[in-house]
Specification:
- The protein is mainly alpha-helical and 240 residues long.
- The chain folds into two domains: 90 residues, no CATH class; 137 residues, no CATH class.
- Helix 1 packs antiparallel against helix 2 and helix 6 runs antiparallel to helix 7.
């Protein structure tokens, strides 16, 4: 899965390298050349590829290389399965699953929630005026909203926070389509989906890496702190 996500992110980033002046995701430069594919170019705007959406040869080559890369990542994880299993057990012990409590917001989280939706409301107002910058903000900040919003409510298990991502994703994508329809010229539905894939996939990979590193850093910090606390408590007991 790591290999598939990384290869998908590389294909998404290739759009900005292969397209003229970074592409035309905002719909304001209809004559720019757009292309996609890593390591081989497999799609180009305006090219029907003999009736197919993509060039099947480079597509098959990219898929083969992606599966090879993903298999290499899987083989590496299999070789490291024992220390990884031990790490997983220690992580689960460090972050015990707590029973879910009723949905509630702290004052700080409520302020953050209000600020986010104030920005969204302001963006919707600009969208009515046909501003392409709003669509650009949707491409850039959408994944990070999906990361932040599920963490705002208190008293939820991480499984329920993950479930919250699904409706928010659908709501954001519907909002992106509505923004595209309000622009002049109109950004079509398939262009919105393409832009969502191209911009959200690399950011989602980065967000997953950041969250993983934060969890590991917190676990490492608590693991080193616990022996020190035990040692101080033992010395205190001896003194008493």
């Amino acid at each position: 899965m790591i290999g598939v996500l990384v290869f998908a992110a590389l294909n998404a980033i290739s759009y900005f390298a292969r397209s003229e002046l970074g592409g035309n995701l905002l719909g304001n430069a209809p004559h720019h050349r757009e292309a996609l594919g890593f390591p081989f170019e497999m799609w180009e705007s305006g090219n029907n590829f003999d009736g197919y959406f993509v060039d099947l040869g480079p597509l098959a080559a990219n898929l083969g290389l992606g599966l090879l890369f993903a298999s290499t990542c899987g083989a590496a994880l299999v070789r490291c399965r024992r220390p990884l299993d031990q790490l997983e057990q220690e992580l689960l012990a460090s972050f015990p699953e707590e029973p879910s409590s009723p949905l509630q917001f702290s004052l700080r989280n409520l302020m953050v929630f209000t600020a986010i939706f104030s920005v969204v409301a302001a963006a919707a107002r600009y969208a009515q005026a046909g501003r392409p910058e709003v669509l650009g903000a949707f491409y850039l900040f959408g994944p990070w909203l999906l990361v932040i919003i599920p963490f705002l409510p208190d008293g939820l298990t991480w499984q329920r926070r993950v479930v919250l991502v699904v409706p928010f994703t659908l709501m954001l994508m519907a909002g992106g389509v509505a923004i595209g329809q309000s622009l002049t010229p109109v950004v079509e539905f398939d262009k919105i989906l393409l832009g969502t894939f191209l911009c959200w996939t690399p950011q989602s990979v980065v967000a997953a890496v950041v969250i993983t590193l934060v969890v590991l850093w917190h676990w490492r910090r608590t693991r080193h702190r616990r022996p020190a606390m035990l040692a101080s408590s033992d010395s205190g007991a001896e003194l008493s």
